[in-house]
Amino acid sequence: MQLSEQEIIRREKLDALRKLGINPYPANLFPVNHTSKQVKNDYVEGKKVIVAGRLMSVRIQGKASFAELQDSEGRIQLYINRDEICTGEDKTKYNEVFKKLLDLGDFIGVAGKLFTTQVGEKSVRVTDFTVLSKTLRPLPLPKKDADGNVYDGFTDAELRYRMRYVDLVVNPEVKDVFVKRTKLFAAMRNFFNDKGYFEVETPILQPIAGGAAARPFVTHHNSLDIPLYMRIANELYLKRLIVGGFDGVYEFSKNFRNEGMDRTHNPEFTAMEIYVAYKDYNWMMEFTENLLEHCATAVNGTTQATFGEHTVDFKAPYARVTMTDAIKQFTGFDITGKTEEEIFEAAKGMGIEVDDTMGKGKLIDEIFGEKCEGNFIQPTFITDYPKEMSPLCKEHRDNPELTERFELMVCGKEIANAYSELNDPIDQRQRFEAQLKLSERGDDEAGQFIDNDFLRALEYGMPPTSGLGIGMDRLIMFLTNNQSIQEVLFFPQMRPEKKQVELDDEAKALLEIIKTHNVAPLAQIKEEAKLSNKKWDKTLKTLTGHGIAKVVKTDDALEIHMV
Questions:
Q1: Which stretches are annotated as coiled coil (predicted)?
Q2: Among candidates 281, 229, 150, 209, which has minimal Cα distance to 448?
C-alpha cells in the first residue's frame, strides 16, 4: 500500500502512543454525559461535564492551548492547561501526547468544567483527556480566510458521494439533509398511524417482477434453483393484503430498477405505497395533498419550500388537470379517440424520438414527458390517464378509454402516483396479456410476466380500493432544495473507483507532455519525449495499458489521445 507522507507520520505517532502505554483504540466505555448542544443550551458556569468527539482545530500557546471538539450535534471549545491536566512533575500527557501525538480528526474524550472565556465563548476547561481513536488519514478540512470566506473545501461531488463518511465530518450542513429525511419518514408514518393504517413488510426477492413497468435486477436462488427478481414495486403484495382483510396498509420499501442513472434516478430507491379499502382516486387526491402539507410543515416548519429558482407551496388544495387537457394545452394535439398509428405520427411530428416497440401508452407517456411535464411547477394533479398507460388501474367510470389515475407533478417531476385500483380479475388478466404482447414487441419496460397468483387473489375478491405511491427520495429533494438524488442518499450507487496507478519518472514525464496537447501526432510526442526506442515503447505501453492514453489511427497518421 502506497502511503502519503502524512499517513506515514500518523502511523509513527500511533506507534509512539503505544510505546507510552496508551491504547489508541481502547475497548472500554467512555462515560459521555453531555453533547456540545447540551453544554450550550443548559450552560451552568463551573458545571462538570464529560464530552467526546473529533479534534477539529488546535491553537497551541505554550503551556496552554485552545481546541475545538466536534460531536454529533456541533462543536464546543476546549481550553487545555498543561498544569491542570498534568498536576505532578510529569508533563508528558500535555507536552508529548497532546502537543505532538494528536492530530486533527482524532477522537478524544475530555472531562472538565464549564467556563466562559473573556470574549464570551462557552468552553470546557479540561482536567483530563483520553485518546479514543487515532485517525490514520488526514481529513480534507476546509479553510477560511480573514473575511470568513471558505476555500479548499471538500466539494468534489464524486469524492463526497463515494466517501460520505468524510463528507459528513467536514461539511456539517450535509447532515441537516438527512435529519430532515428522517423527519419526513416519521411525519408520514405518524400521519398514517393516526388514521389507523397498518405498516407492513413485503418480499424484496420476488418470483415475478410486477407492480410497475421497469427492468428488474435478476438473481438466482441456488437451493430452489429458480430465478428471483429484486423488487421493482410492492403494489401486488400490498393489494393481496387488502384481499386478506386489512382496510389500510402501507410500506416504506427499497425498490430496485436496472435502468439508467441520472440526477433524479438511482437504481436503488425508497418508495412509500399505501392502499386503503373502500376509497377511490378522488378521495386519494385530497388525502395526498393533506399528507404532503403535513409533511412539509413537519420537515421545514412551513408549507413552502425552495427548489432552485422556484418557491413551491405544498399547502392544500392542489390544481387538477387531465392528461388529455395538458397535452392539448402544450402541443395542440388531442389524443382523444386517436389510434396508435395517429399518435405515433403526431409524436414524430413533435420531434419526439419514437420506435416500433412503443405501444399507445408509451407514446402518450413520451409526448407528455417531453412537451408537458416541465410546465407544472406548483403541485398539480395530472388525472385520467389513457387505459394503455395504466395496466393496474380501474377503468374511468365516465370514459372507457381512460383510467382513474393521477400523478402529482412538482417542478416538472412526478412525486406521487395513485389509482382507483383495478379489482376486476378478468379485466386485470386482459391488461396483463396486453402488456405481455408489448414486451414481446421489444418494449423492455412493459410487463414481462403474468402474475397468476395475484389474479387468483383478485378472484377471491378485493373491495374497491385506492392506492398511492410516493418517491421518498425525490420528495426530500424538493423539501431540502437539492437538484440531485445523490445528495439525499447516504450512499448513492457509484461507478467502480478507478485504482490509482503508480507511474515511473519516464511515464510521468510523458504523461505531462501528452496533457499539454491532449491530442497530438504520435511522432511529435515521441520527438518531444526524447526517449530511446526501447524506453519509448515501454513507457507508451504503460500509459495505454492503464487506460490513461490511447493511440488512434487517422487517415494521415497515428495520434495520441488523452483518455
A1: none
A2: 209
Residue 518's pLDDT is 79
Q: What's the confidence (pLDDT) of residue 27? A: 96
Phi, psi of 511, deg, nearest 5: -60, -40
Q: Is 459 marked as a binding-site residue?
A: no
Q: From the CB of residue 293, how many other CB atoms can be counted at a distance below 10 Å?
A: 18
In the beta sheet, which residues pair with residue 249? Answer: 198, 275
List the one residue out of 17, 11, 12 whose CA is nearest residue 131. Answer: 17
Report which residue type is found at 455: L
Q: So what's the pLDDT on residue 213?
A: 79
Cβ-in-10-Å burial (0-12, 13-18, 19+) of 274 comes to buried
Pairing of strands 64-71, 48-61: antiparallel
Q: Is 89 annotated as a binding residue?
A: no
Give the whole-angstrom CA distance, residue 293 versus residue 315. Answer: 5
Alpha carbons 6 and 28: distance in angstroms, whole number: 29
CB under 8 Å to 409, separation ≥6 — which residues?
373, 376, 379, 380, 381, 382, 415
Give me the DSSP letters along 336-395.
Answer: TT--HHHHHHHHHHTT----TT--HHHHHHHHHHHHTGGG--S-EEEE--BGGG-TTBPB
Per-residue pLDDT, 387: 85
pLDDT value at residue 257: 95
Report CA-CA distances (Å) from 210 to 260, 422, 449, 464, 466: 19, 15, 8, 21, 18
SS3 content of the chain, % helix, strand, coil (to 5): 35, 25, 35
Parts of the chain with a pLDDT under 70: 1-2, 441-448, 499-500
User: How many degrees, rounded to 5, is the angle at CA 284 between CA 281 and CA 286?
Assistant: 120
Supply the pLDDT for residue 447: 54
